[in-house]
Amino acid sequence: MDEGENGENSMSYVWKEDSECNLAWCSPTLGCGKADDGALYKGRRVSSEPSKFPFSIMTSSNALRTIGLQHVARGVGRSTDLVISKASGSYVYTVEGNKYLDLTAGIGVTSTGHCHPKIVKAAQEQVGNLIHGQVNLFIHEPMVKLIEKLKPIMPSKELDTFFFWNSGAEAVEAAIKLARHATGKHNIIVMQGSYHGRTIGTMALTTSKTIYSTGFGPLMPGVYVTPFPYTLHSPTQKALPPGTFRDDLTTEYAIEQLELLLKQQTAPSDTAALIMESVLGEGGYVVPPKEYVQKVREICTKHGILFIADEVQSGFGRTGKYFAIEHTDVVPDIMVMAKGIASGFPISGIVSRKEIMDKQPPGSMGGTYSGNAVACAAAIATLEVMEEENLLLNVQERSEEIFGRLRQELSPLLEKHDIQVDIRGLGLMIGVEFYGNGLSKLHEKLNSKVSEAIVGQCFKNDMLVLTTSVYDTMRFIPPLNISKEDTMIAMDILMKSVKEVIN
Ligand SMILES: Cc1ncc(COP(=O)(O)O)c(C=O)c1O
């Protein structure tokens, strides 16, 4: 036991010994590691001993960390236990003053970087004028102005009627409510590997990992799963010579399975909607072939099934276009937006055609904070920054640089372990999956997935990166305005970390 730093009211805590960490990539001298709850830590980690809450003045970083660990619901989980107090551009700063290059952007949220001055100013000004203009009571100015900014960037002019909410999951639920009501049907088709949220409704639509729904059932009924065209893991690739991949076969198979689903499990007359992420996110940063998305659109139109595009993670410039679905020339019936829309302020939304939206009776939609005025002002400022700083171009240029370096440098590093690397994605939504014959051997040596070990080593080297999916995959989602210089620093840290892990 050690004594806290805040006098008699501070909690007791013990240090976890570095030697307890058995991960090969964790150096005991540096004292970094991965705790039982999965969080990466640097230095020595405090235990989860019960604390003597409430505390007096909590200024010590360890005291703050301990409250965070003990008094925030354990179900939240987190990938590091850094206590941060400040962030700017592509960097976050801990209370101890350490600086990390942030390639997570708060999981695709801080699109204009942390605390962009224009977003800060817009929010500050809005706070002085109107904080809350409840949507079931008023039409407020920032929401109307936001709609005016959003309309021209929608994938089609037809998508002209909006409903705003707070989180991505809520917006997905709004889309499902809309589809059920507008069609008078109830079943929903989702893609295998999809992620749509953690609420009671959306966890039934989420199939990326069982962790999100195990033990929380019964799940919402009427959800049917169809394969996503994930070429690397498609059964159609097994007969091909090693190293050969054919997206056309994956597409054919996935379409066949969707058609079978409509014949065997959920009749078109019972099916309200099909929801798909325009780029599979939590499922592994997989880009569906354009032909697949176009065929799905045709099938939906033929059967009167509404096509919902979930652009929560892939939207607002992330892939080099405002919305990832634009890469396929498909227009959805309903589109779901959130995350990057307001650079970190909580706002989400759906858009659809007026004739679909107007079927809902007044009062059936809404919510206390729905389309909050400050969040709307931040969203307008985000869109202005995107135009003024030409962020779509920055996304394309930085993307080319990242893809270039990954392709040139990563594969040769892993070849000696008989591991291949699938580098994929669009714009600044980039996934790297490790696969091949040597994978299990390296997993054994590292006592973790390769992606996890590299993410842990990047953390030691002061850079934040995330893994994704049930496979061995890392994902890169930096801010859309990351500079060329920071992009190069990020790639240098990554390559250094990979070498340190595998050598
Ligand atoms: C594609 C997609 N849909 C929905 C959600 C849920 O959004 P939120 O976490 O804001 O509820 C996410 C979150 O990661 C997402 O990536």
Could you describe the 3D structure shown?
- The protein has 503 residues and is an alpha/beta fold.
- It is built from 14 helices and 17 strands.
- The protein has helices at 61-71, 105-108, 117-129, 141-150, 168-183, 200-205, 247-264, 290-303, 354-357, 373-388, 391-415, 439-446, 450-460, 484-502, and strands at 33-34, 40-41, 84-88, 91-94, 99-102, 161-165, 187-191, 223-226, 271-277, 306-310, 334-337, 348-352, 420-426, 429-435, 463-464, 466-468, 473-476.
- A seven-stranded mixed beta sheet has the order 6-12-11-10-9-7-8, sandwiched between helices.
- Strand 9, helix 8 and strand 10 (306-310) form a beta-alpha-beta unit.
- Helix 11 (391-415) runs parallel beside helix 14 (484-502).
- It is globular, with a radius of gyration of 23 Å.
- The two termini are 37 Å apart.
- Mean pLDDT is 91; it is low at 1-30 and 44-58.
- It binds pyridoxal-5'-phosphate (PLP).
- Pyridoxal-5'-phosphate (PLP) binds next to helix 5.
- Pyridoxal-5'-phosphate binds next to helix 5.
